[in-house]
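> run fold Lipopolysaccharide heptosyltransferase family protein
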Amino acid sequence: MSLLKKFFILLLEKKIKKNEKEFPFNDINSILIRPIGEAIGDAVIHTAHISQLKQIFPNAKIGVITKKSNEIIFKNSKLVDIIINRKLINYFLQFKKWDLLLDFENNFNSSSLLMDRIIMPKYNVIFMKRYKKHYNTDSIDSYNFHFKQKETEKLGNYLKNSVFNQKYNLQEPHSILHTNKILDFYYDKYYWTDNKVRVLLCPQGSKRQIPEIELANLLNSSTIHSISNKIEYVLSYTITSKSYYHNLIKLCPNLNIKYSKETTLVEFFSLTKSSNLVIAVDGGALHIACAFNKPLLSFFADARPNLDIWEPLLPKDIPHHRILTPKTHNPNLTEHFIISDGIKWLLYYLQLYSTKLDKELI
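> ok
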């Protein structure tokens, strides 16, 4: 270990390790959350954790450490009392103001260890921490409780796999997002064509993309002639979605595919809420769809542990089918999907919703 890192570790607060039976439930009036990352999907899943914490500590103040990229998710959960932007000055302003820090990051790093040293929460909980040469659970003592998780455990289950669930029988994790009622009205009444089954396409994420030819194969094979005039697809906006759209419509000349204009994240919430079904690649849009209980056809690389960690948080009664690639070690390698079962699944639900639509029009 370098002398600099040794010196840094010596400066960290030394916490007393405690076992689960010693968890101070009656001493917790404020909870600070450090998310696993700063992506939108990360934040959406953490709203499920916050909802569970509200079940245990209904009167506790809840704070979240955020970046600009995920702040709006926590604001629109309406579960968070204080948003703390990840800046050094803000750490000093939070000195000794928190009873409990829940650290969801999957490894120790200098930035977060410094944050803990400045904020000095009364109790610090860690979950899954990957081993690093210099920073690991043997070399770092700045935590009280370690609720260990399997490498392949679903992120949404972290609180369920801890003392919190042992004492309080937590509800199943489900993400919470609120929408703007005016935007809801617009997207529900004016955005889509009347009397169509509404399918939102989200094939592009920040790191992953369903190849146009593979999505086209799915849509062309599932949208059979007898129902094709009853289905409207909308391609969600990304920086490169215009090019994607032009390629897709060339491959799907007989399908009704609409291009979404640029949307804010709050507008995208309402667009998602107004849809009947969502088709999405592994990414933030997929988890937003889960928050609104949308039937979901998801695309994942068959790469563990990523495949397990980011499993969608949908109630058991909401239809969901996962389309996978061949096995790979790269979670971002989203191509060569095995879509045969996905075609059957999508065809079934397109026909089901088309039939329901016909009955509503009678």
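The domain at 3-168 is CATH 3.40.50.2000 (Rossmann fold).
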